[in-house]
Amino acid sequence: MTLIELFEESVIKSAHRAAMRVKKDGQWKTWSYEEFYRDVKHFANGLISLGVPGYKALNIIGFNDPAWFIGFYGAIFANIIPGGVYTTNGAEACRYIAEHSDAHVVLAEDNIQLKKYLEVWETLPNLKYIIVYNEKTLPAEIPLERRSQIFLMKDFLEYGAKFGAETKDEVFQQRKDLQKPGNCCTIVYTSGTTGPP
């Protein structure tokens, strides 16, 4: 059984039950399993629509948040390999992991984490896009040539929803079906797993 099958089984069994909750700005926001699955599908479709090839990596840098898990599962559904990055890593350690894992996309918690990748992006030819999940606006100092490669999470999910509707989720289904038991599902980096940091 794959993680995708296990996830979908949970959605069928518990569609309207709470899957995740987070308190932001003094207000609780809840995702049911059905809503969680919807956002995962939109995230996956967003990655696919950008042309991110299967079996490349998505690095996720941020603290515990529903967006972290939406990105994690969205990558798996798109046949892309997610891997967490320590929030305390500096720009050079982020660069090392992005290069080592062949990351084509980074999901960053906020503008603080985004700036680490902006410092080293020129040394990462395979890094194509960054998605930021806990911000309402992006920093003004983003170079003009990078602006089309950086998304806020809300906009990215809308982008993926549109692509899914246009393709009737056919490409999503094809990518999802590529994941087989025994395939690599995620990369876990501990400090010094492969050398630095």
Commentary on this structure:
Helix 2 crosses helix 3, helix 2 (33-49) packs across helix 6 and helix 4 (91-101) packs across helix 5 (111-120). This protein is globular. The termini are far apart. By secondary structure, the protein is an alpha/beta fold. 43% of the residues lie in helices and 19% in strands. Strands 7-6-5-3-4-8 form a six-stranded parallel beta sheet, with helices on both faces. A two-stranded antiparallel ribbon has the order 1-2. Helix 3 (66-77) links the parallel strand 3 (57-61) and strand 4. The mean pLDDT is 95.
**What is Rg?**
16 Å
**Largest sheet, order of strands side by side?**
7-6-5-3-4-8
Helix-and-strand structural type? alpha/beta
List the helices and strands in order: HEEHEHEHEHEEHHE
Q: What's the rounded overall pLDDT mean?
A: 95
Termini distance? 34 Å
Q: Quick one: biggest sheet?
A: 6 strands, parallel
Shape category:
globular
Number of strands: 8
Low-pLDDT runs of 5+ residues are none
Q: Count of helical segments?
A: 7
What is the percentage of strand-forming residues? 15-25%
| DSSP helix fraction | 40-55%
